[in-house]
């Protein structure tokens, strides 16, 4: 690779973003440029390196070993730049009590880091945490039982103030180290399909659209818990419908695709920090910033 300059560092950061988000299109949307611009930047970087950095497979992008080795070197620099943002972050809101809610599967990834951060920035804060499904959390916000919540996208958020923190997508996942993974889409008929159960208001529109890929097939197992579905899939008991972030937390699941499927982004959905309109936006924006930091640095242990 030729001598690094600012433009090449920016392209390396873009490469890292593409790998984190799983597609060129989502990376383009994240930084508000066209997919064509992202593709051109990647091609330019590959020419500079002299080796391919991404493999496109079944609508996804996979980092080559060369890309991983390069990013292992430069990611500490990206982390340092991220920490510098703290110098110009929104002011820390003055809170003595916070009732905050989220749903189970994202709580696993976010709450340890969020609690740690809140303890350091607001040591006198008393924090109340509620774990429930999105519809229940929004209902609690409307009733004043929660200040804010981290929720998955729903069809009716018009009355809420929302700050997007992440874009996820659904997939069909099976156990990686079993014979089931060799069956591909046939595994859905062999072991059945596990899905989140509908709430009182049914399933979100993005989830319903995604399940239409099943055609005449229907889930045989319903659960309120994505974590229970993930554990069952990892044990080889079923094919689980899971958000990519949940499925890829560990390297024990593999994604399978419906035969002939062309629309692999139909399960895409946003994760948002939400509160009532007219709320303290400073509080919501602060929580959104901290949540993004936690999602970008999963698996960190706090002492």
Ranges where pLDDT stays below 50 over 5 or more residues in a row are none
How many whole angstroms does the radius of gyration measure? 20 Å
Strand order of the largest sheet: 4-3-5-12-6
Judging from the principal axes of the Cα atoms, what is the shape?
globular
Strand fraction: 15-25%
What's the overall average pLDDT, rounded? 84
Distance between the termini: 39 Å
Characterize the main sheet. Answer: 5 strands, mixed
| H/E topology pattern | HHHEEHEHEHEEEHEHEHEHEEH
Number of helices: 11
> What is the percent of helical residues?
40-55%
Oligomer status? single chain
Number of strands: 12
Structural class: alpha/beta
Strand and helix map with partners:
Elements: H1 6-21, H2 24-30, H3 35-49, E1 54-57, E2 60-63, H4 65-84, E3 97-102, H5 104-121, E4 126-131, H6 134-142, E5 148-152, E6 160-168, E7 170-175, H7 187-190, E8 193-196, H8 205-211, E9 221-223, H9 226-234, E10 239-243, H10 244-247, E11 253-256, E12 269-276, H11 281-296
Parallel strand pairs: 3-4, 3-5, 8-9, 8-10
Antiparallel strand pairs: 1-2, 5-12, 6-12, 7-10, 7-11
Helix pairs in contact: 1-2, 1-3, 1-4, 2-3, 5-11
